[in-house]
Amino acid sequence: MLANLDLGVIVSSLPYLFGQGMVFTVTLTALAATMGVVLGTLLAILRLSGIPGVWHLAKGYVELMRSLPLVLVIFWFYFLVPYIGAWATGSPTPIQVGAFASALITFTMFEAAFFAEIMRAGIQSIPKGQTAAALALGMTRAQVMRTVVLPQAFRNMMPLLLTQTIILFQDTSLVYVLSLTDFLGAASKVAQRDGRLVEMYLFAAVVYFLICFMASALVRRLHSRVAIVR
Amino acid sequence: MTSTPIPAPDAPEPHSGPDPALADEGLAKGPLIPPSKAASGEPMIAIDGVSKWYGAFQVLTDCTTRVSKGEVVVVCGPSGSGKSTLIKCVNALEPFQKGQISVDGTKVKDRSTNLPKLRSRVGMVFQHFELFPHLSITDNLTIAQRKVLGRSGEDAKRRGLDLLARVGLSAHAEKFPGQLSGGQQQRVAIARALAMNPVVMLFDEPTSALDPEMVGEVLDVMVELARDGMTMMVVTHEMGFARKVADRVIFMDRGEIVEDATKDDFFGQPRSPRAQQFLSKILSH
């Protein structure tokens, strides 16, 4: 079987696979990870705030997202967001949300739940004495969070945040359910068109493996470099 | 201004132990204490009938005392006697349920009190230093000056480096806390607190987490500060420090102030049996 492999189909489709597919995958991963970390940090702070109602809400959100399959959430947002948008803006017809925007919102909100748990652990890992010292210097709670707790939490949790982003990079392939063409989707299209399923899916697997393997190795190296000396 | 200048001592205190490995520059001189509302001899800290509970457990019972401007008060007592809790009530790091504390005329337990502003005038030094490990020594010294007092980066740095020189650590400005020894970190922590121009300094067992050979360098800085006329409330087991610079000694046991006496009275003839017992234990070796 392997003797029949046609590697030429891979070479000829490279511009399409990377120029469109991989660019989409990386764009979606980068945007969703950035926005997810911001939203996740906010959720973590709310959950740790101890404000009745607020922390319950944050906890409920995180638990809900972590308990649902990602594909379900993708569908859910794709079909619901237009109606929620219409309701929020008072429009009589569903708001047109492109598949990309819908996917981006979904991944951001889904990943935020996971980032929130990482950031919660990060914030809790900072000794209470750090907060006490910053408060004693006259900082407000918000200043303590911004200048003392979060910078340390981010640095301590950077390896976990990046590892979660690598998982997100793989998960973005699920956008095929919205007929979006990411890297895997592009490979799949070529495979169907040319009848070269084995070559294309093998190649896609190799590319995902190499990227994620190298990224993980980089994270490990980074880990030893950013660790804060106490 | 009602504050009176305090003359600097003629000769620097000899170091209580040699520290050749550290090779620090020694303590520089200069005015440290900002003006306050209280005149010399008037109470800078007034603690009135303070009681505190953790749930049903009472940790402080009706504590009352005064710390006058320029006075150095040492708080001692066995572990769990509430001494750390009491000084943490002074800058509201610990809430208390009953009584009142005033610092330079400002009530600590009052809804209208701007707590960050009050705390910025009360320096605090912690047992475990609590320098910010992700920031350089210079940034540790300047961050609160900039964020809280709104000083420019330049002014804050000048003030920070000035104080760093005073604690004899100028050479370490660009290092990070993890690169310094415990004693050096604690001296930076003292400089960080002083950079805010506090009218009073609180010390919460500042030498308890230090290796024995580093205790001396930290106490030297504190003795210097006391001689400069800083109002200080110091929780410590260092009776040598108390003998040298304390005006008064407060002895606490089980959340109560058992003895509140001048240094000479306390060390000469403690009235309560519990204080006598404590002293004989701590001074016998």
Automatic annotation (TrEMBL), chain A:
What transmembrane ranges does the database entry give? 22-46, 67-89, 95-116, 160-180, 200-219
**CDD domains with a match to the protein in the record:** TM_PBP2 (cd06261)
Provide any one GO MF term from the record.
transmembrane transporter activity
Please give the chief subcellular localization of this protein: membrane
Q: How is this protein positioned relative to the membrane?
A: Multi-pass membrane protein
UniProt xrefs under SUPFAM superfamilies: MetI-like
Q: Which InterPro entries is this protein grouped with? A: AA_ABC_transptr_permease_3TM, ArtM/GltK/GlnP/TcyL/YhdX-like, MetI-like, MetI-like_sf
Q: Which GO terms describe its biological process?
A: amino acid transport
Q: Which UniProt keywords apply?
A: Amino-acid transport, Cell membrane, Membrane, Transmembrane, Transmembrane helix, Transport
Pfam families recorded: BPD_transp_1
What is its subcellular localisation? Answer: Cell inner membrane; Cell membrane
Instruction: Give me the Gene Ontology terms describing cellular component.
Output: ATP-binding cassette (ABC) transporter complex
Residue ranges of domain ABC transmembrane type-1 in the record: 22-219
This chain's function reads: Part of the ABC transporter complex GltIJKL involved in glutamate and aspartate uptake. Probably responsible for the translocation of the substrate across the membrane.
- Please give the NCBIfam families that the UniProt record associates with this protein: HEQRo_perm_3TM (TIGR01726)
Q: Which family does it belong to?
A: Belongs to the binding-protein-dependent transport system permease family. HisMQ subfamily.
Under the subunit heading, UniProt states: The complex is composed of two ATP-binding proteins (GltL), two transmembrane proteins (GltJ and GltK) and a solute-binding protein (GltI).
Protein name (record): Glutamate/aspartate import permease protein GltK
From TrEMBL, chain B:
Is Transcription set as a keyword in this record? no
Region Disordered, annotated ranges: 1-38
Composition-biased stretches (Pro residues): 1-17
Cellular compartment(s): Cell membrane
Q: Report keywords, A-Z.
A: Amino-acid transport, ATP-binding, Cell membrane, Membrane, Nucleotide-binding, Transport
Coarsely, its chief localization is membrane
Lipid bilayer topology: Peripheral membrane protein
One protein family per Pfam: ABC_tran
Domain ABC transporter, chain residue ranges per copy: 45-279
Query: Which GO molecular function annotations are given, in alphabetical order?
Result: ABC-type amino acid transporter activity; ATP binding; ATP hydrolysis activity
The family database entries (PROSITE patterns) matched by this protein are listed as:
ABC_TRANSPORTER_1, ABC_TRANSPORTER_2
Gene3D superfamilies for the chain: P-loop containing nucleotide triphosphate hydrolases (3.40.50.300)
Q: Which GO terms describe its cellular component?
A: plasma membrane
Q: Which family does it belong to?
A: Belongs to the ABC transporter superfamily.
Quote the protein name from its UniProt record: Amino acid ABC transporter ATP-binding protein
Q: State the organism named in the record.
A: Methylobacterium oxalidis
Instruction: Read off the lineage from the record.
Output: Bacteria, Pseudomonadati, Pseudomonadota, Alphaproteobacteria, Hyphomicrobiales
